Amino acid sequence: MSLFTRATTRQAPHGRGATTTSAAPGHALTVRGLTIASRTGTLVHGVDLDVPQGAAVGLVGESGSGKSLTLRSLIGLLPRGVEVTSGTVGVTGQLGMVFQDPSSALDPLVTVGSQVVEVCRHVRGMTRAAARQRAVELFTEVGIPDPEARLGSYPHELSGGQRQRVVLAVALAAEPDVLLCDEPTTALDVTVQAQVLALVERLRTDRGLTVVFVSHDLAVVSQVCSTVNVMQAGRIVESGPTERVVSAPEHPYTRTLLDAVLEIPEVEAG
Ligand SMILES: Nc1ncnc2c1ncn2[C@@H]1O[C@H](COP(=O)(O)OP(=O)(O)OP(=O)(O)O)[C@@H](O)[C@H]1O
């Protein structure tokens, strides 16, 4: 299942060393000194993050820089053997998570409609009929054509883009306030990726959702996020408004990420 939610007031299993509080006023998330370690050593070193309510904030860095662990720790989903050793995580509202690969996020043996219905019933306490109606509404909201008919489809019967839309519908079924997105478009081709990014942006503005968006691709993050945090080797090395970070990067590593984006040849539309 791709979705995990929790209430702020409940203690989440961040790890032995974490303290959970409410976020600073006006913020959905306030993270201070987040440190994550495994037996082999420290993987994330004292990360600070400020995510204002309703904003889209990006976390960008190459593979292995610690983005996923940072995101997963917020929702208590660190892998076995990895834990938060110190830090404060302030959360206001419910968190929902969308993972990179829609094929593994969805159960291949259950129809996509049932996967949304299950969340509506178990997280929202809806009756079966109300949950089915809600599933149709959510499929419509995320742009799945012929939503009633699509409820009965299995994940393999949908395109990659449609599967990621279903994953978003499953996440939205729990009515989260904050959507944590871990490379949600990486498995998609460029055109579909742009559509899903536009959808995330629309959901943010229409629903007033807060979005935390993780990607290795600065170009992708800059399409969605007004603020970006650049992560290298478990540390945030630069943060700021995306426009400033992209136009006048201060850290050499950010410049390297930008160069990587600029080296990609432009593809003609059409
Ligand atoms: N289960 C684990 N046990 C031990 N070390 C781990 C575990 N998972 C990740 N790591 C290590 O923690 C570091 C950060 O990993 P993380 O997955 O957060 O990076 P990332 O920036 O999200 O990269 P990717 O985009 O490839 O997932 C890496 O050095 C990785 O090898």
TrEMBL record:
Annotated localization: Cell membrane
Membrane topology: Peripheral membrane protein
Domain named ABC transporter: residues: 29-258
Region (Disordered): 1-24
GO BP annotation list: peptide transport
Biased composition, class Polar residues, residue ranges: 1-11
GO cellular component: plasma membrane
Keyword annotations of the record: ATP-binding, Cell inner membrane, Cell membrane, Membrane, Nucleotide-binding, Translocase, Transport
Tree of life domain: Bacteria
Similarity section: Belongs to the ABC transporter superfamily.
Name recorded for this polypeptide: ABC-type dipeptide/oligopeptide/nickel transport system, ATPase component
Species for this entry: Sanguibacter keddieii (strain ATCC 51767 / DSM 10542 / NCFB 3025 / ST-74)
